[in-house]
Fold:
Amino acid sequence: MVIAVALNSDYLEKYGRFCKLQYTGFLFVFLFRQSATASALEYVRCQRRLACPGTTALMQKDCTRTSSAQTLDSLDCTRISDEPEKRYEERISILEFELRQANATVKTLREHLTLATSEADASQGVSSNCVPEEYVQMQIKPHEQRVLNFLVNEYLLKNDFKITSVTFSEEVRNQDFDDWADVGLNLARPPDLLSIYRHGFANLPQSKPETRDVNLQTHLFSSHSPTSGESTLSTDSFVLLNRLNAENASLLQRNQHLEEELRVIKAELEATFTAQQRDDSRSPLVIENCSSHPAAADVGRQNEEVSKIRQSFYKRLSNTLPPCWPVSSELGFEKLSFLTAFTGQTAATVEVIEVIGEILFSLIPKMSMRKRECILPLVAVVIIAHPKPKRREELCAMMFDLFKHPDAEQRQALVAVCTYIASKVDSTRVETEVLVHCVQRIDSRLLEQRTMAAEVVSALIPFISRPILSSLIISILRQMTLSNNAEKVLVPVIQACSRLCCFITVGEKFHVMNELFLTALSSTSSVVVDHARNAFLSSLAIWALEDFALLEKLVASLLCRMECIVDFLCKKSSKSGKEQQQLNIYFDCVGSIVPVLFWNVVRSNPAKDKNLEGLENNLNFQVPSECLLDDLTLYTCSSEMQRLMASFHRLIGEEWHSSWPMLDFFTCSVLTPLARLIRKVETGDRSVLRSAVHCFTRFGNFFGQGFVRNRLCPLFQVEQASIADKEDVEFTSLSLPVYTVAVLGSLIQKSDTERLKRFLKEAITTIAERNLPIRCIVLTLLEISGVHPEKQLIFDVMHACVAHPSWRVRRLSGAIMSALATEHNGRDVEVTISSLLLRLANDSSPDVRINTVVGLCCLASGCESDAQVSDYAKQELSKIFSDVPGTITDVCAAEMLEKIACIAPTFAIQFLDYLFLPQLYALTRRCLDARDETNATVFPALFDVYIALSCCCFSPATISGYFLPGLRVLVRELDARRAKVAQSIIIEQERKLFNFQTT
Structure:
């Protein structure tokens, strides 16, 4: 038996909140509040059931556990205390119990409210198949309003409408938007508004405006008063329409998947075909290789704006520059070909791409730097197919940050990936997602990052739109060119400029690109200069073909720079090697654009439309191909080019022919300034001479011999003027070798050869009589002997000069033959030269004899093919040395020794040991014994020869027998400064001799 007694408040204040008494199996519980009597009774019953298991069955009907039973079970009611300090803690426990009891009551009310709402909807006939109009006609319920308020507030917060969300929360004060349970229904939380819209409204049939024929009568009330049967039919039709829409969507998705598979198969087949073409022809083109990609159409449309010549040139340029199209076998794109199906925007593929993208962000930082290159293809595919622009941008940034110091292979892989991405997407995405990261790295402090940016920009040029090419890309390349970058960066920048000139259509940008080209030519790096001269200049010249004004600007800029360099050289007393090298480069540049100038003249000749049957087959225009522009089929087909060239050569070969504007421009604006310019350049550097000769030789090769005779020869007045009227500059400047080798030497008829011989004899005679510097004529003869088809031409000229009555001409002939002896090899040449030198060595004039010493030394030292020639040369050398002092004056002897000192280190050691040093020691003893006051000029010359020979390795017998004795004799006749140098040489040679003896 359980008895519950309610105590009054006074007793509770005195004895505490709970009292628990136990007597003979009965449990007395005293609760502190009368309002809690029922709950206390329930608790006591439960405790009794636990204490007395036998009474459980009897009490089961009355002791149904509530939601608050577990709460009371957690209370420790055995602790009864009268202490006042426990009062607040126990009060809190009771309040918690009341709160849980209230929550249980609210939960019960929710269940009843949900049941009542469902019954009300069923009674009103609301079903899931009702049409949208019926939903609108029904009045909104309170719980529906609370659900909509919650979803609207959630939508505002997700889309960053924070101020609107705060305002909305203030207006709806009776609802807590942070807790879904505050809505008041025991229902699952619905998806957000966007999902409800996509899965609900998108699947509903879209209402279409009703149309009627204006000529037909309609019932005015047919659409406003439907019967009940029509309403039922409308509902059934709506259900059927939903089913058909679902089936249609499924079929469309299946169709899209099949189209993606078909596109992947086509891409693989085309990749295989492209690889085979690349192996066969070795001439890939980016635009052709990517014709099946989405971006290929844009590139193709852009190329329609560019001339066919530029398109053809770009194909050839792509063969010479690093490839901007990835090799799939190297990066494994074919292994990920199935991922190209993810470019569709279905829910499944988008979800897979998003998951892969998230995995990449956590995977890549944990990968080794050496292994990151392997993941680039996957990153590329995810960037292509990812639906979120922000994520794509982050993936691109991560891709560029994979390597802090990328080496050549890593940069090549990154360029291939960027090109692959650009081929799959449109130009807008290329510019906003890939190109932007290149722009961020052009000013990087790391050389590898700047190089990578330049290489990527160069590869992306075919995939970028025209406005960006003409603005941003030019600015990027200009900044990188003018910022004094290293050679490693400038080379891809120049390559990018070369590609860029094939796509720009804005003529106003030609000046900017021309300035970049001239800046690249002034670089100290020979690699950069070579790329600028071969690729960049060719692209500019092809671009200039589309507008004659651009061609004028290009030619004028080159000639203006050459004029500045020549004027600077004329003002300087000492010739700088840097200016000579720059002039050499500009001559090569002018020679490189000769094919463009030729095509500009040929295509506009007035005889191009005349009938020239049979003439094409009789002409053979074989031009040696040296650069990209030399292949004339670049400009038109072979048959058309043959026809145009035939008409041009026939017209220009006539002595009196009509001119036309392009020919006048070429003659007056190109050839005339060049002819005037070379007259100012002295023949000092042989490389400049060869460049100038090569430039004019290309004019003759392209324009033909008729043009050379009638147009080029009159520009050089060297031959036309009489000897008295000729200026000295004509025989000391580049005019002489250019006119001799490039103009007269290009004419191959017999009369032209005789004309060349006469001119050379006259030039040698004039130089000798006027006592002009002989370097120009020597270099001229050396050049023409190497390029002219008739090898005996020079020797025929020299035979006449050797027998000339003037000793000055014979002396010059000896110097020329000595120079030829140092350059030419071969038994026939050596025999011819030796015969002429031996004849001059026996000349009566000492001045003539001493000019043959250098040539005789070369023959005696290096003639291995004919021992007889070497013996004759040694005999003549011994005679000449024995005549000093004697018939050869001291002045002539000093001049001879100075020439020997210049080439003495090149003599063979055997020749020095057995002939030259003994003769030199004997000559030193004779000069010392003579003790003539004129010997003051011979001893310094002898000292120079000993200084030149001090670097050679002699045998110990030669050092002790000839070199040291001769130098000791010479020391006593030298001044203090030279004597000190001679003493140091003696000490060094004695040390070498001691080392030989000890070893």
